[in-house]
Amino acid sequence: MPLAAEPDDAREEGEDQLQLPTTTTNGGPALEGLVVGSYCHDVLIRGGRVVGETLGGAAAFVSNVLDAASPQHDALDEPPPVVVVAKVGHDFVYASAPAPARHPPLLCASPTTSFHAQFSETAASAHAPDRELRRVRACDPICPADLPDRRFAYGLAVGVAGEVLPETLERMIRLCRAVLVDAQALIRTFDGDGAVGHVALGDTPYARLLPRVAFIKASSEEAPYVGVETARRWCCVIVTEGRNGCRLYWDGGEARVAPFPAVQVDPTGAGDSFLAGFAAGLLWGLSATDAALLGNFFGAAAVSQVGVPTFHPKMLQAVRETLEEKITKGSSPCINGITFTFERSNMHDELHAGLQEAARLMSEQQQADPANGHGGDICST
Fold this sequence. Notes:
alpha/beta, UDP-N-acetylmuramoyl-L-alanine:D-glutamate ligase, 9-stranded mixed β-sheet, 5-stranded mixed β-sheet, 9 helices, 22% strand
């Protein structure tokens, strides 16, 4: 099953594993990633009243997790480098302290993309959203020329407002050894009032690029528009199901991955954090199904705070120790830092148990510091 059909870098027919450059230590070459998406101004509204304003946009959530969870690659305990391409206007308010965007954006003449999130007063079901999104401003789209002219080990196309053009995604595919895509970057539509809708992926210019994508992630609400049964013939499809975890579908197999408990404060960024956690799991050398555990973990961490979450160092250390312990066991031939497969390994349950302990630490920290539930970048109004 092809995962990345780059013409000058294709694998031999029948190969079912994606070859990635090897991460080395002590200052050697790292698995550099490319994140293409948006930084946004998110305005939170409940009961007709503005209750907060936060840094938003998939690029903010994704880079936050990659910076925190990617395997260290040198003696300075630094994660592999991540290049973020996101456009903002001169009105962007999160360029400096107290909680700036971690990676500098590109400035353009148009205003920064802004969303209003209208929250329901009642609890949502496991599959239905509990907020209504409306795009009130849209920044300029990201063009192919905005991307760096060099190769990357992997790329994440994580648009939220139509900013990732088809030609930009195609350029990413040529630059990156493997590309992971959030379906919302491809299928979202906006009416005259900015309300978010969806269009079938097969009716978009992105459909022809699907065979050249490694993974595509969709929420349970978006999955019908993606067409899972068709898409799985070309790439691995991941469907997130909120408190029910997620499911993976590939040509010839599928798997369900268990969730992690969380008290939901704000669902914004859960899918972005999942995809980043999943990508980090692949960087650690996990199989796709095992990596989805790490995705579920960071998705749960995201909903427990408002805005881009702040991760407690003790929790992150517990996650890192769990991954290091399980991977060094070498219990599965796919856990070697160079290749990945789709099926769960024989240490999947142990990995889940270790991450459960990290989730407990996270919960204890939030109880000890209730203000932490507001995240690091909310401006109360």
